[in-house]
Design brief:
Blueprint lengths: L7 H21 L4 E2 L4 E2 L2 E7 L10 H14 L3 E6 L1 H7 L4 H8 L8 E6 L2 E4 L13 E11 L8 E10 L2 H17 L1 H7 L3 E2 L10 E2 L1 H20 L3 E2 L5 E3 H7 L1 H4 L8 E3 L2 E5 L4 H9 L10 E10 L15 E11 L4 H18 L5 E7 L12 H18 L3 E5 L8 E6 L7 E9 L2 H4 L4 E2 L5 E2 L2 E10 H12 L12 E5 L2 H17 L4 E3 L6 H10 L4 E5 L1 H6 L1 E6 L6 E4 H14 L3
Parallel strand pairs: 11-15, 17-18, 24-25, 24-26
Antiparallel strand pairs: 1-3, 2-3, 3-8, 4-5, 5-6, 7-8, 9-10, 12-14, 13-14, 15-16, 16-23, 17-19, 19-20, 20-23, 21-22, 26-27, 27-28
Length: 585
Amino acid sequence: MINIKENEKLSVLNHSCAHLLAQAVKHLYPEAKFWVGPVVEEGFYYDIDLNDKTLTEEDLPVIEREMKKIAKDGKRIVRHELTKSEALEMFKDDMYKIDLISRMDESDTVISCYTQGDFTDLCRGPHVETVKELKNFKLLKISGAYWKGDAKNHMLQRIYGVCFETPEELEAHLQELEERAMRDHRKIGKNLDIFMTHDLVGKGMPLWLPNGAIVRKELENYIYEKERKLDYKHVYTPCVGTVDLYKTSGHWDHYQENMFPKMQVDDEEFVLRPMNCPHHMLVYANTLHSYRDLPIRIGEFASDFRYEASGAVKGLERVRCMCQNDAHLFVRPDQIGEEFKKVVALILDVYKDFGIKDYKFRLSLRDPEDKEKYFDDDKMWNEAENKLREVLDSYGVEYFEAIGEAAFYGPKLDVEVKPAVGPEVTLSTCQLDFLLPRRFELTYVDNEGKKLTPVVIHRAILGTFDRFTAFILEETKGLLPLWLSPIQINIIPVNNEYHLEYAEELYKKLKDLGIRVELDDRNEKLGYKMRESVMKKIPYAVIIGQKEVEDNSISYRKCGSEETTTMSKEEFINNILEEIKNKSN
């Protein structure tokens, strides 16, 4: 989807359409006052104060009709320049514009406003020449927004819209929005009973329901086996740490704004942990290590807690409580290249299993000018960044560099994946760290008996299980691969009186083999039960009728297919077990 904010022509078009929206609202609701109407990635919005009038989605077509009427009239959009005192006089009855103007520097450039017919609005511009150019628009939704984004202020009404040059571009955009809505993991998660949220638990704190718990456990088992075969050692560590722990790591100075507030318990101050590396540093430090012991790979499926603004939390995708597929590799300097290559190979292996093909590597570097966000040690940073470039170049991985995207302690490799719809998401990360081992005074003994400091590689292959689940739900529209599906097979007897006994035998056989199976023995019509099976996104619906009972066979339909296949019971079971074992997509 195109980023309208970054496209100069579309940006001007959408900003002008925000003024068209405001003019239409003013015609319909003369008491309306307006705060700001900026361009955003997917169009524009305007924040509006309508006193006691509350708009609903049903009001949007009425506003659209008025916008079309104004656009058809074709008035020119004219720019006026004002002094600050003139602007204050012009908008003296509008508290929102007065607030904006009052905060402008007296020595600032000339203040401008734009007039189109009977409507004038304070604005820097630029705008299109006439409202006639604003034909291809659509109002998308309405929501509440606090004035200045501050919850202490009163609530305004925010109307979102989008505008394009041609009706074809608008239609393509709307179709993509519709596709995105169909893939929204929040909707899918609710329909399939994957997760829920509740105000009593709190924003950004999802509860995994039984179906979701199955999905998450399968993901955990999957990546655990991958890591076990690569000699990772898994640990469990507490969800809290003392403030002193994070002062030692440096997170208290560089990451505190993303952490939950500290808690006083007896004579100690604790915080919910935002990441696991400090705990893993102490696990490493618990034992003396020889150079022969390295690399040491410590993994954990760890619950972490990070403060996200309430407006930013979104389903499983952006949460305040998450479970990371985390690991820390403690290596000698001469092992960095090989271990980093193994991490990249693991990422690519996982992506192949999940059919993820559209991705790119981003080398995230520090901003050398930012001494507050990043630990101030030029030598360490240059060494770490050059080492990462060297590894990536030697491995032949194509990547691009992003200044200012590193962690505070070191550069990292982010894998940005392009989903079926929407902007790119970062799923996997791999970070190089010379700092934390030094701060925790970690050592190993070399072949001459000297104590040296290891290097740490931080890595998360699936990222968080929360975000990865959201990604997979949206990619598959909820039709998960067989091995990952909460219910794998739905057995549907055509007639309980004649076919239930055989169906129950098959159910027990599959259940004993570890297959997640459901038996739909309700007294409902076959068509109804089949449709419900499709709605639940169950991969296989097995139909048991008289022929199947007599032949000791089964007939099945794959979810999304109208084709019915019949085969022997044994062949079907073998095929299912093989598909689960191979983790076929």
